[in-house]
Every structure is written in C-alpha cells, then in structure tokens.
C-alpha cells in the first residue's frame, strides 16, 4: 500500500473510531484499525512521508502553486498560453473565485493540514502504547508540526485578508483546525483573525523548535527531513515578514552564526535548481524530488514535479522556427529581463517579420556574450533564464539553441525561457513530466537578506549593507567575505534595475534577483505593500492590462469552499 493511501485510510479510521453508532457502523475485519495502526515508529515514519509528499501535490509545488499562481501575481511570468480566461485574469491581478488553479492550491494546502492532524493524532495514540520510543516520537512530531505550520503559512499568506499581525491583526485570517473532522458540523469552521493565524503558526514552530533542538539529519536518506536549524530559519523568516525585528534578529543571527551553513560558490549555485548540487552548504530546507518514470509529476503519488512542464523552454526546430520542449505555457515577463540590467537590444534584425534563427542579428549575439564576460548584466539572469539564440538545451540527445518563445510576436517583447527548475539534459516529456530537481525552499542567501533587512530596522545599517553585499559578491563569483569593487556603498545605492521600485533599493533588488523564480517575491510584494508600484512597472501581460486594486493582495476564497462552508466569509473585493 502506498504511503499516502495508508495515511488517508488512517484519517478515515480515526474519524470512524470517534463516531457515534448512529453516524456510521461499518465492520471490516480485514481493515486496519486505530488500535492496530500505527503500531511502530516505522508506521509513523510512513505517515510522515505522506505529509511531506503533499508539499509537491498537484496544487502545490508538484504543479500549480508557482507557475500558475504566485508567478502570475508577481509577474515573474507572462502567458504564452491564451486559452484559459481565468488564468489571464490572474496575471492581471484580477483573480476569480471560480479559478480552478487557485482552488487546487487551497485544496492541497488543507489536505496537508488534514494529513498533519491525522499524524499528530496517531503520534499521541502510539505514545501511550510505547513510551520507550519517546525520543523518536518527538522527532516525528516536531517535523509534523513544522509541516503543518508550512501549510498554514501559505494559507495565511495567500488568503489572509491582511498580512501583518501588528497592523492588520484584526482582519480575517483562515480557519484553525487541529483535529480530524468526525462529522459535517466540524467542517463548518469560521475564519480566525490574521493575528490568531500567525500566532498559531508560530506556536507550532516553537514547539517544533523544542522537539527538534540539536537535530541535524546527515544520512543520505534523511537529508530532506526538517532539522532544528530549518525550524529556526523558518521562525526567523516569519518574524521578519511580520516586522517583529527583535525576534527576527535573534533567530536569524542564531542560524547565521551557529548552524555551520555557508553560501556555496557561484559555480555550485548556478546549477542548484536543475537536479544538481542538492542539499548544499546553504540549504536549510528543500523539497526532495526525484525523476519518476512511473507517475506524472503533478501528483503526490509521484516522486517528481510537473512544474517544469509548464515553464518548459522552447528551442529551435529543424526548420529554424520555434518548438515546445513540453507544454511551454509561460515565459519570463519581458520586464524582468530589463530588471537584471540587460539592455543589448532585440535578437532579431530590424524589420523582421518571421521568427526564425536565420533572422537573428549577429551583433546581438556578440554584445550579449560580451555582457556576460564583463558582467555588465547581473549574472543571475542566466541562472534564472535561458537566452534565445545564445543558450542551448539538449533535446533527444542533441544540442539545440533556445528559441524565441512560442506564440509571442517577433518584435513585441524579449521572450526568453526559464532555466531554474527545468531539465538541461532533456525535455520534460522525455522524463515523463516528473522533474526531479529539488526545490531549495529555505536557504542561507534568503536568511542573509532577511537579516540585513532586520539590521536596517535595528539601527545597524553598516552590517545590513555587508550582508547584502555578501549575497551580491557570490553572484559575481567573488569571495563572499571580502570587500569588492562591485559592492553597494549604501542602502540606497544604484542597482542593475532602472525602475522606481528597485533602482535605489539594494535590499529589495537583491531579494528579487537572488530569489527570482523561487516563489518568494509575491510575499515580499505583499508585506511591503508595493503591489501598485509593481503593477505600474509591468503594465500588462499578453492577455491585457494589469488591473490593480488594494484588495488584490488577498486572493479570493474559492467559490467551492464558500458554498461548502456556511461560516466561510469571502475576502473584500470579490
């Protein structure tokens, strides 16, 4: 029996055992019962694996949450595919309550909560049978609490009517559910406040911190598990997000000075998102994925992710035109290319009317290669993206140039392809839509930048600037801890970006550039309340003009949930 199936069976059995006789009376002598399962630490580990697996379920990192939700809200992407109206509206910051992609994410996050709750109940049942296994049980419980906090983190961040518990704490957050429902009435749960939602998340993580104190998984088969340092890093991230600078400083400094983590070299970093260099020296927590030739990646039954199918590069076909390497639905928004400092013009010669490699301007190639060599453009552009007609990928064992992206007019925009979380050695279809590239969800560069932000709010601008520069130096292949010629001189120094949001804000620029395409920028946009400025910068997507309203920070509760839960109130503006 697959692990997730055992987990779901345990959920059902737990509920049945708690029901009154008039609710259900089913006898199956061949089935597992709560008195029989879990019956060992190994059983608890199996259930825990199912809770981890939910992170890459279809609605989450297995398919939808990045490329079909977060990337559209913060304009990491533009849409090549124009056949789904609600998806276009999402890219216009006009999400709809009936959007199926949004519902997928909502559903899978609650599935993660449900599975966490079922495991936590099983833990306490088993603890009574085997108190001698207390240490192992505590480690499993600590991981389960971290994961439940992780699911609630996204529920609150995406659907909380407000974000900051201090300034918006009284607004609507999300329902808090800590037990498996045993009847319909227990599914009719009203929303707690934003403050109550964040307090609950922090409470779970504080308990996990105690249970996982000193735990650092080093075995080859255990590296994906939550460590004590992952918990501290997550807490530091949340405190910074909530502008609780005192607590943020304590936790982030602890990770930086005591965890033993360090930034990798640039050569390691640039391939850290493509199935290579996993669990590096800067990784605190990453979603562990593997190529799966037996099951589609957009499902938690699979060991991989189909994210790469959605963002798949396009390449030059035999006729010199474009070919999709998979679904190839989205590409980096053209404004992002300029934000990295790329200003080398268009790849096609003036007057081009046909997107064919024969019409590429040779001078463009020369300028582009020179910009890379001289680092006049942020090197992270080519970590995150493939450049048309300059970069290449492998298709059926043959090296093919990256092409101008599909369906985009020849002169309309710079239509590059994504590199992060794609397979450089073959197309996604060749690996059965199940990409095995790990997703480094929490890493030291993120911690450094959050710490810099915290220091800037704590009166230590000099040290804040140093931690920003550490991240920048690595991006340029320089020693992290030594002053360099590319260092920012102040917290308002010039960046590679030329727009009003990032031009004179190294902290914001470095978070945008360093973490580009990793799913963090939308939460930064939300907590800094710069959605209107970002919308003004990006202006439009291929489907139409971006339409920004103040209520767009909080996404609409899916209509399915509003219909099913009589106590569920919709967010303002929908």
Describe this structure in words.
- By secondary structure, the protein is mostly helical.
- Among the domains are: 3-20 and 32-213, Serine Threonine Protein Phosphatase 5, Tetratricopeptide repeat; 307-437, no CATH class.
- The chain is 41% helix and 7% strand.
- The protein has 20 helices and 12 strands.
- A two-stranded antiparallel sheet has the order 1-5. Strands 2-10 form a two-stranded antiparallel sheet.
- A hairpin with a 2-residue loop joins strand 11 and strand 12.
- The longest helix is centred in the first third of the chain and has 30 residues, at 100-129.
- The two termini are 42 Å apart.
- Mean pLDDT is 92; it is low at 1-24.
- Residues 40-239 form the SusD-like N-terminal domain.
- Belongs to the SusD family.
- Keywords: Cell outer membrane, Membrane, Signal.
- It is found in: Cell outer membrane.
- This is RagB/SusD family nutrient uptake outer membrane protein.
Write the layout of secondary structure elements.
Layout: H1 3-18, H2 41-53, H3 65-73, E1 77-79, H4 85-91, H5 100-129, H6 134-159, H7 194-211, H8 228-241, H9 245-258, H10 266-269, E2 283-287, H11 307-310, E3 314-316, E4 322-324, E5 330-332, H12 334-339, H13 362-374, H14 381-384, E6 385-386, E7 392-395, E8 398-401, E9 417-418, E10 439-443, H15 444-456, H16 461-475, H17 506-514, H18 521-528, H19 531-538, E11 540-541, E12 544-545, H20 559-564
Antiparallel strand pairs: 1-5, 2-10, 3-4, 6-9, 7-8, 11-12
Helix pairs in contact: 1-2, 1-5, 2-5, 2-6, 5-6, 6-7, 7-8, 8-9, 8-15, 9-15, 15-16, 15-17, 16-17
